[in-house]
Design a protein that fits this description.
single chain, about 180 residues, alpha/beta, Alpha/beta knot, seven-stranded parallel β-sheet
Length: about 180
């Protein structure tokens, strides 16, 4: 096996990416404080053709050197919007016909391996603050919660790791 050079990967140009068909998924960051997590979510969203990233509350927005450090330019290719309040973003998406899931450990949550998606629907997933998670009042607005099963001693995963797992699993189902 020969490791491929970056010039051999045949990636889309930023212009080609902008017109590429995206999966009907919006990722919402609810008060995510780490700009490295924000940048990582942008980069994963670029890799898997996510429609947009919504940045809410204390979540920092581009342009910012700390976001760029992990996004590597994806903050310029993935559409994004800022909302001072996550509730407003969720209401807007609900009114536009999106099904919304908090990625959270909650009573009645659906374990990720049991998640089913309707190819005809649009989805949004909410990733929460590194310490407090998704606000309970935002969870209350959601159509459900998706939980990533964990089997070790820790009770949570890093926001960007969680985003990567969730976005990849949804991409596998939604990408035609």
């Amino acid at each position: 096996m020969k490791k491929l050079k970056i010039t051999e990967l045949n990636r889309l140009s930023p212009e080609e990416f902008m017109v590429q068909h995206k999966i009907p998924l919006i990722v919402i960051l609810d008060n995510v404080r780490s700009m490295h997590n924000v940048g990582s979510v942008f980069r994963t969203s670029d890799a898997f053709l996510v429609e947009a990233v919504y940045l809410c509350g204390i979540t920092n927005t581009p342009p910012h050197a700390e976001i760029h450090k992990t996004a590597l330019g994806a903050e310029n290719t993935v559409d994004w919007k800022y909302f001072e309040d996550c509730h407003i973003a969720v209401n807007q998406l609900k009114n536009s016909g999106f099904t919304i899931f908090a990625i959270e450990q909650a009573s009645g949550s659906t374990l990720l391996p049991e998640m089913t998606l309707d190819q005809q629907k649009k989805y949004a997933v909410i990733l929460g603050n590194e310490v407090k998670g998704v606000q309970q009042s935002v969870v209350d607005m959601c159509d459900g919660c998706i939980e990533i099963p964990q089997f070790g001693t820790k009770h949570s995963l890093n926001v960007s790791v969680t985003g990567g797992i969730i976005i990849w699993e949804m991409f596998k189902i939604m990408h035609n």
